[in-house]
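User: I'll paste a sequence; please echo it back and then give the predicted structure.

Assistant: Echoing your sequence first, then the prediction.
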Amino acid sequence: MSQERSVFLEREGHNPKNKVLDFLIVAQDFDYSLKEIAKHSNVSYPCIKQLKKELVKNKWINLTRKVGKAQMYKLNIKNPMVKKFMDYYWAVVESAVEEELGIKSKAKAHEEGYKSVVPLAVSAKHV
């Protein structure tokens, strides 16, 4: 993933927290060790260890299990703040996709007087 470009990061900034959340949202079906999160989000391990304290304290990530010495973490999708952030994340991605493909959102099309809009693309959220 380190070579791929994230639309969200391009628009919202490449800070460590955004990088970690970007990875955890896209790969939310599994749990990961801090080492794996560091590798896939392209953030240094010491930075991940520091960031983990904040994310656990604010219940953005949960400890799911221990594998040997490794602690495994997963995005806490039950947290209302995480849900709102994920909605924002996918709205940013969807907006970029619509912009790239020249598709007007339903609201914008309605504002401009269109009676109906035929969906031409599926957002990245549903792929």
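Residues 7-102 form a domain with the Arc Repressor Mutant, subunit A fold (CATH 1.10.10.10). The radius of gyration is 17 Å.
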